[in-house]
Specification:
The protein is an alpha+beta fold. 20% of the residues lie in helices and 32% in strands. Strand 5 and strand 6 form a beta hairpin.
């Protein structure tokens, strides 16, 4: 915690650059999709040589969160259903993609996939994000701009 009691920026487990135990995922837009290329590291292991399913789920959740962010909104996970199709080998280069399928009121529905370098589907997911209240969203936008994110969503109260 910082001196004022606020959590330090850039500490997100999924994308936080300053979290020494995090995944350090970096996202970009490709058309209507949010994408991250990721190489698993040893500490993400479950069974020997395989990525832990909870880490796969975290990667999907993070990608969905960034898809919401790329739509210029702030949201939080309301529901996440992951279907694991194949084991994720720690030696594989992975591609995580997420995209918005529907928006209604304060809910955003999304889909996501994890594929290996050959394009093999390893996991897919459906999820719902709930938009944050304007006060919380404004605080997050200010924090994002403070750490250099000029693309932070503009929040209209």
């Amino acid at each position: 915690m910082s001196r004022d009691g606020a959590p330090p920026p850039r500490m997100c487990y999924g994308c936080g650059a300053e979290n020494e135990h995090g995944l350090h995922m970096e996202f970009r837009r490709e058309g209507d999709r949010t994408v991250c290329d990721f190489t698993p590291v040893e500490f993400t292991q479950g069974y020997p040589g395989r990525m832990h399913g909870g880490v796969v789920s975290t990667m999907i959740d993070e990608a969905m969160g960034w898809a919401v962010y790329h739509s210029k909104k702030w949201g939080t996970t309301a529901r996440l259903a992951v279907r694991y199709r194949r084991p994720v080998d720690l030696s594989s280069r992975l591609r995580v993609e997420a995209w918005i399928t529907n928006e209604r009121h304060r809910l955003i529905e999304l889909r996501a996939q994890v594929r290996d370098e050959s394009g093999q589907l390893l996991a897919d997911s459906e999820g719902t994000y709930m938009l944050l209240d304007p006060r919380t969203a404004s605080m997050l936008s200010a924090l994002a701009r403070h750490v250099g994110r000029e693309d932070a969503p503009e929040v209209v109260p």
